[in-house]
Amino acid sequence: MWLGEQITERGIGNGISIIIFAGIVAGLPPAIAHTIEQARQGDLHFLVLLLVAVLVFAVTFFVVFVERGQRRIVVNYAKRQQGRRVYAAQSTHLPLKVNMAGVIPAIFASSIILFPATIASWFGGGTGWNWLTTISLYLQPGQPLYVLLYASAIIFFCFFYTALVFNPRETADNLKKSGAFVPGIRPGEQTAKYIDKVMTRLTLVGALYITFICLIPEFMRDAMKVPFYFGGPHCLSLLS
């Protein structure tokens, strides 16, 4: 945490994200080399390797496209006068990101779902803890219950985290105080409801997008027998 704060203060970027990025990138060369070696030995079919490469490039393009996506709400500033200066009417926009929650929902979801497995590794050998071991087996990555709960948790945390970091009412109040308004919408309460409606739709799209990105590696590992695991949170962290 201290090192991350120092990186952020020096203006290099978000320190925690850079540290996570470095850790992920450091593990990529050995994983790629191992995959290529398995393809050379015939353990992994060349067509599967080619399909994985195409899929990785397609997912990369898709993530970059969505991460840069915005819903721009038109905002107008009425003509106003301050002292002797007269300001003409202006038009601008309020940008709302499609994925405002970032990678946080995926990290929270995976941490919570894998928590029973962590507890089972501590106490699974004791008497009376067999039920916890059984639950942890059903919650292993690749299991149907894991996939279902993982997707549900991602969607939940997308809405939960977005509600924490973005307040439509506060945004509407700031627009009203600065003399701005959304065309066709009354300033204040009506503007807050409109922004909340737009943000809810964007959050739903963002939640489905994150869920899709995070479930692709599960498919690659189970259906295509890819020998390394490159999770959705890793992909989102790298490209964000």
UniProtKB/TrEMBL annotation:
Residue spans crossing the bilayer: 12-32, 44-66, 103-125, 145-166, 202-220
Membrane topology field: Multi-pass membrane protein
Broad class of where this protein is predominantly found: membrane
Cellular compartments per GO CC: membrane
Subcellular location: Membrane
Xref: InterPro entries: SecY/SEC61-alpha, SecY_CS, SecY_dom_sf
Keywords: Membrane, Protein transport, Translocation, Transmembrane, Transmembrane helix, Transport
Stored PROSITE patterns: SECY_2
One of the GO biological process terms: protein transport
Family, per entry: Belongs to the SecY/SEC61-alpha family.
Protein name: Preprotein translocase membrane subunit
Organism encoding this protein: Escherichia coli
